[in-house]
Structure to design on (101 residues):
């Protein structure tokens, strides 16, 4: 019977999907069972923020050394002082400012 064959094929397909979902669930369960420690996450975020700030500082320094245009130099230094440094202190203060946790 053709309808019965279609039904058997559909049942087989759904069983394979359920089996694949069960395997994915096991992998996700392992990841949620062993979360990243909060101190390690804070350290990683702080490290990347500081690296980004130092890289931008280095980039501005190289640009100033190569270009030598006084107007652009002062603009870049002002941008670093008014935009990047407060952002770095905001992020670091957010992650390390609270001793409650």
């Amino acid at each position: 019977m053709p309808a019965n064959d279609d039904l058997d094929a559909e049942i087989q397909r759904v069983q394979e999907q359920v089996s694949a979902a069960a395997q994915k669930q096991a992998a996700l369960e392992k990841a949620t069972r062993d979360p990243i420690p909060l101190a390690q996450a804070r350290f990683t975020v702080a490290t990347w923020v500081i690296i980004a700030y130092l890289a931008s500082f280095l980039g501005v320094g190289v640009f100033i050394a190569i270009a030598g245009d006084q107007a652009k130099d002062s603009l870049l230094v002002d941008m670093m002082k008014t935009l990047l440094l407060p952002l770095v202190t905001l992020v670091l203060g957010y992650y390390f400012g609270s001793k409650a946790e």
About this structure: Residues 23 and 76 are 52 Å apart (CA to CA). The chain has a mean pLDDT of 79. The first helix runs from residue 2 to 33.
